[in-house]
Amino acid sequence: MNLLEKYLQGYEILKGSIEGLTPEQMKTVPGTGKWSIHEIIIHVVDADLMYAGRIKRTLAEENTILLPFDQDAWAKHLYYHQTDLQTHLELFRLLRESTAQVLRNIEAADWEKKGHHPEVGELTVQQLVEALIEHVATHVRRVKTIRAQLFT
Ligand code: NI
Q1: How far is the CA of 69 from the centre of ligand 1 (A)?
Q2: Which of the residues 70, 113, 115, 146 could staple to 66 if both were Cys, CB 3.0 to 4.6 A apart?
Q3: How far apart are CA 112 and CA 27, in angstroms?
Q4: Separation between Cα atoms, residue 143 and residue 1, nearest integer Å
Q5: How many helical (H) and strand (E) elements, i.e. helices and strands, does the chain have?
Q6: Secondary structure of residue 68 in the 3-state scheme
Q7: Residue 80's closest CA among 23, 114, 35, 49?
Q8: Its pTM surpasses 0.70
């Protein structure tokens, strides 16, 4: 499976990870300072939103700056528990599909274009896409752990 196929598969993987959970289970906080599954999913969608912008900036602009974002502040100040999950899952699907359209059209050399992240340093388009694939995998593992601990 190539990188773009894996990237597109993220939607089914993310959606599949929460299958069968009730809204109450989704919003159960597993411990002090821990995210509920609902918050995890919204976080994954917001990260994709930021990364879609990063990928486009890196492709379109020379020496672009990739802005970091404070994920805990986002979860708190954007009131993740009051945001609708289905709307965000749909946004995730559309972000991946629309970004994949862009990535299908670029030249092979464009995958090596770099943006600059103030904390991480240089990141290529390929690394940004790989990071997104890994990001879903990491959080889906966490969802599985919470499900096994609390809901089985
Ligand atoms: Ni994350």
Answers
A1: 11
A2: 115
A3: 40
A4: 24
A5: 6, 2
A6: coil
A7: 35
A8: yes
